Backbone:
């Protein structure tokens, strides 16, 4: 016999996954990430994040903005791709034909100077979990980019990896699926998963933890 989760329980879970973590949990998560080789900064709001990213990104560097509602909603995507301050990768790949320039597109997205994006969950033990339907951002996250900057809203902090996957499957995926259907006319899926337990290259990976909830 199968059972289903009552609507009230689903609503409670969604509310929990959408609510920013407490200051204590944010600090505990930041400490764990630092212990695993990530540079971590805790910022109050997205205005502070936008200013900080402007400081962190070298002028004229090749910067790839991974698909992210966090970046879009915060205005970071436009800051990078439309400002003219950087060699923005995304406008370049959008101008290429995937059928005839597929290899170049893969190279541009996999090995930029800097990739800026987000993840779907971060555990209090200091692991980042990124999921993707296409996998286009994952090579740069894993090691292809010389530097990576993740912007993570405090609602993405979870207790452990089990909670991370519950968050992704029950909360983030339905929202991303609705977005993909509205924009692309096709559904989304959890096709590829990257778990980053630590960063072995000193200075490579920066996590900007935002006290606010943003994105999903």
Residues:
């Amino acid at each position: 016999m199968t059972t289903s989760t009552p609507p009230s329980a689903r609503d409670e879970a969604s509310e929990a996954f959408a609510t920013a973590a407490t200051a204590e949990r944010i600090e505990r998560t930041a400490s764990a990430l630092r212990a695993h080789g990530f540079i971590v900064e805790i910022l109050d709001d997205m205005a502070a994040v936008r200013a900080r990213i402007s400081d962190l990104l070298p002028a004229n560097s090749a910067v790839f903005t991974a698909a992210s509602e966090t970046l879009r909603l915060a205005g970071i995507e436009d800051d990078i791709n439309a400002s003219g301050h950087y060699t923005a990768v995304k406008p370049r790949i959008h101008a290429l034909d995937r059928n005839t320039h597929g290899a170049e597109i893969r190279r541009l997205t996999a090995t930029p100077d800097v990739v800026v994006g987000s993840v779907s969950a971060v555990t209090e033990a200091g692991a980042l979990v990124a999921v993707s339907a296409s996998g286009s951002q994952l090579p740069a996250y894993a090691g292809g980019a010389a530097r990576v900057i993740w912007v993570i809203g405090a609602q993405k902090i979870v207790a452990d990896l089990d909670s991370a996957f519950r968050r992704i499957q029950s909360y983030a995926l339905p929202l991303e699926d609705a977005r993909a259907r509205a924009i692309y006319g096709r559904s989304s899926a959890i096709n590829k998963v990257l778990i980053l337990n630590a960063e072995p290259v000193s200075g490579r990976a920066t996590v900007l933890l935002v006290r606010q909830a943003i994105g999903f």
The first helix runs from residue 7 to 18. The chain has one domain: 8-210. Confidence is low (pLDDT under 50) at residues 1-10.
